[in-house]
Specification:
about 130 residues, single chain
């Protein structure tokens, strides 16, 4: 890879030298291509390469962290499923007890309503008797 990069930079530099010669022939203006220009090309290439490497490394790290979180979530889900399976019989018993309690409450509610009507009737009679005695 390094040799192909060196060849690429060399090609860029020689192409600029050739184009500068054509530029001078056509427009009679001089464009200097110096070793400093070549060094600037290499420096720019290194800077861009570093930026791309950092971007790729950041993306790789995000990917790895995401995979770790997915693995963690999968293990937590399996633990919760195991706990749920263990608590299922207890949940069924509690559900049955709740249903029985609801049936008993409904029966008691009917009895309480009947007693309430009797008490209200007695209260009316007592209020009427109290009103007559005054």
């Amino acid at each position: 890879v390094k040799t192909s990069i060196v060849k690429m930079c060399k090609t860029f530099h020689t192409s600029v030298v050739d184009l500068s010669d054509k530029y001078r022939e056509i427009l009679q203006r001089i464009n200097y291509v110096t070793p400093t220009s070549y060094l600037e090309l290499i420096k720019t290439f290194k800077r861009l390469l570093g930026q791309k490497q950092k971007t790729l490394l950041d993306m790789k790290n995000r990917y790895v962290v995401g995979l770790e979180k997915l693995e963690s979530a999968a293990s937590e889900v399996s633990i919760m499923q195991t706990e749920l399976e263990a608590l299922k019989p207890q949940l069924e018993v509690t559900s049955k007890e709740t249903a029985d309690l609801m049936v008993r409450i409904e029966a008691e509610t009917v009895e309480v309503e009947a007693k309430k009507e009797v008490v209200e009737a007695d209260e009316k009679v007592a209020n009427k008797a109290a009103a007559e005695s005054k």
